[in-house]
Fold this protein.
Amino acid sequence: MRKIGWLIGILSLILLGACSKDPNSALAAESSKMMKISVVTSEDRSLTKGLYKFKEIVEQETDGAIRVEIYADGQLGGDREVFESLQFGIIEATTISTGPVASFAPRFSLFDFPFLFRDTETAYEILDGPIGNEILEDLEDQNVIGLGYWENGFRHLTNNKREVKNIDDLKGLKIRTLENDLHLDFWQAIGANPTPLAYTELFAGMQQGVVDGQENPLGNVTTAKFYEVQKYLTKTNHIYNASVFMISRDFWDSLSEEEQEIIVKASEESKNYQRKLNAEEEEMALDYLKAETNLKITELSDESYEEMFQAVQPVWEKYADQIGEDLVEKVIKMVQ
């Protein structure tokens, strides 16, 4: 019953938005295909801006035969609800971090192995290559088409309790995590108390003391203003977070071959645009947090990084068994 109510709520929001538009726009919509895209990030975030670039390309290349509407700021729910909306064909596209996607297609957990990637170039090589493409195909069983990997960025830790300089400082901290088993196991392995919470509920959760802290890319820390309810930030770089760009299988099948080619091309161009934007955003976010907020910012030493890396090896082993040891070993060799 709860899921039915949620679905009705999302449909109502979409219909309300459509009805509030200009009548001429409504008439134009009747002769075009509508592509509704939902994302949890704010309008200011690079992922959302990448979606607007996608909208611009698609509408221009199709001469308006495909129209794109973007619902940002979690208007249509958190990551899980948005993915399920995609499966049901309620929305046509989204981009979601690999962690939540892995709840539906488990092999995506591979890309969230803690401390796997040390730089974005290595991540791109694997994500954009045969391994990344192979894992995208897992989404077809979920009635979803995966078109590529956009970028959320390296995740860092913030909290309200104390400065975190090493693994001992993490003990007992209530850290909001993604709704993903690997992330829960990772934080438990290094002594924290992980607490799954939807991104849309995170700010209030920290403000009310439900959790002591959270971990996200710096772009999210600034655009969501987490610094208003947090005191400490540690640049942990513990997980590189790709964001999967996906469309509904039902919508994909409704497109002509030419329209499919336009969607694929637009996705690729938008991915490159968004990644570049995200790198700039990360740099500007750090400068802003240093200059304009009261956050105490700590760099993780090589020794502390290595200590955490060793502590999470049992997590690597557990998920290597689940994902496939051959695949994991292949990725590790490429990274090394």
Remarks:
- Residues 112 and 247 are 22 Å apart (CA to CA).
- The first strand starts at residue 33 and ends at 38.
- The chain is about 50% helix and 20% strand.
